């Protein structure tokens, strides 16, 4: 286009004033056109590069892989804006050996066996080890064996606690830790290295309760009751931003059975896997005993998903409450119960964000994407 303009420009001979003025104007137009064209190309290229090199949200996931942990891991792996740096395993829903196997099975289904998996704490700090076999099955994944399950030889040599500390320090201020298990690994990490929490960007926890409604003891939620001392240490010594999806909140956000059917009906290996491992939990969730236990209407209650979705997407949480919290260690009926200090009698320097409401439709979209 520019060559056409210059082809029609007169030579060096003396030009009348009018012709000179026209030529000068034409040159100005050409110059302006070139500037705008280059600006447009540069801007589009810059935007494209920025999108391509966009910083992903770095996650470290601590699990006791049962059914809802598996669902949570799959949700995280399906998010294009998330990079999972590692998965640390802990006792909880089932014994540690099963947790390790289950985690690798989930990664296999997602074609992500490249993600490092670390062996963590086998037992709580002081409490007797518990399990949730009645809900998750004896193996933690609905008692649906996989004869071609990945070998435990794929596990990393470094233990989970040291791995947590190392990953956090190497990515200081960038790592979001999602804890959907008893908090034993986290408590040992802060005991081993008191600076560990300072390197975290944020911590999201599924655990605890706010209305004294228990699911394991009269007043205690499973993850906190499974290791009360660990929960107490974490809530006392972690000063990074903490968000908690507690038991009662998760119950109030149970997924409608109609959506669960849609979720598991996708014709993919991921959906088939989730449907198989969730069958036992779904049967339990439909029982009169369980419906009486939870605080809302009928539906499927994948607790861990709420903490994970909040960690993956900042806009997922629509309402939260800032309050100092701790964990009761002594009560005959209240050991492991989360205590909210509304009167600020504990004089704690940091508060915790208790999730009160979320975008349920956004969660459904995430879950459908996770099985594609």
UniProtKB/TrEMBL annotation:
<feature type="domain" description="Inosine/uridine-preferring nucleoside hydrolase">
    <location>
        <begin position="59"/>
        <end position="364"/>
    </location>
</feature>
<dbReference type="Pfam" id="PF01156">
    <property type="entry name" value="IU_nuc_hydro"/>
</dbReference>
<dbReference type="GO" id="GO:0016799">
    <property type="term" value="F:hydrolase activity, hydrolyzing N-glycosyl compounds"/>
</dbReference>
<comment type="similarity">
    <text>Belongs to the IUNH family.</text>
</comment>
<dbReference type="InterPro" id="IPR052775">
    <property type="entry name" value="IUN_hydrolase"/>
</dbReference>
<dbReference type="InterPro" id="IPR036452">
    <property type="entry name" value="Ribo_hydro-like"/>
</dbReference>
<protein>
    <recommendedName>
        <fullName>Inosine/uridine-preferring nucleoside hydrolase domain-containing protein</fullName>
    </recommendedName>
</protein>
<dbReference type="InterPro" id="IPR001910">
    <property type="entry name" value="Inosine/uridine_hydrolase_dom"/>
</dbReference>
């Amino acid at each position: 286009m520019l060559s056409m303009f210059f082809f029609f420009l007169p030579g060096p001979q003396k030009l009348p004033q009018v012709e000179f003025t026209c030529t000068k104007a034409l040159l100005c137009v050409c110059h302006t056109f070139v500037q705008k064209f280059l600006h447009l190309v540069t801007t589009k290229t810059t935007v494209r590069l920025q999108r391509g090199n966009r910083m992903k949200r770095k996650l470290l996931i601590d699990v006791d892989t049962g059914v809802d942990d598996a669902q949570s891991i799959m949700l995280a792996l399906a998010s294009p804006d998330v990079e999972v740096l590692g998965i640390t395993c802990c006792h909880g829903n089932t014994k540690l050996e099963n947790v390790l196997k289950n985690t690798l099975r989930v990664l296999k289904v997602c074609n992500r066996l490249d993600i490092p998996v670390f062996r963590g704490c086998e037992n709580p700090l002081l409490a007797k080890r518990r399990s949730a076999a009645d809900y998750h099955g004896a193996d933690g994944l609905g008692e649906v064996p996989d004869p071609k399950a990945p070998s435990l030889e794929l596990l990393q040599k470094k233990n989970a606690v040291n791995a947590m500390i190392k990953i956090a320090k190497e990515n200081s201020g960038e790592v979001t830790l999602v804890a959907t298990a008893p908090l034993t690994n986290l408590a040992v990490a802060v005991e081993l290295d008191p600076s560990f929490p300072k390197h975290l960007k944020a911590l999201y926890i599924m655990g605890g309760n706010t209305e004294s409604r228990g699911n394991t003891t009269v007043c205690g939620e499973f993850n906190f009751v499974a290791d009360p001392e660990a929960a107490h240490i974490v809530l006392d010594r972690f000063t990074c931003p903490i968000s908690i999806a507690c038991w009662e909140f998760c119950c109030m956000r149970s997924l409608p059975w109609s959506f669960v059917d849609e979720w598991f009906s996708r014709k993919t290996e991921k959906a088939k896997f989730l449907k198989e491992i969730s069958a036992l939990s779904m049967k339990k969730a439909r029982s009169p005993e369980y419906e009486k236990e939870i605080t809302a209407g009928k539906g499927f209650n994948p607790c861990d998903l709420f903490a994970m979705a909040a960690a993956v997407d900042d806009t997922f949480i629509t309402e939260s409450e800032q309050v100092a919290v701790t964990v009761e260690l002594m009560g005959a009926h209240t050991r492991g119960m989360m205590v909210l200090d509304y009167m600020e009698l504990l004089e704690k320097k940091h508060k915790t964000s208790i999730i009160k409401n979320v975008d349920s439709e956004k969660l459904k979209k995430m879950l459908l994407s996770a099985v594609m």
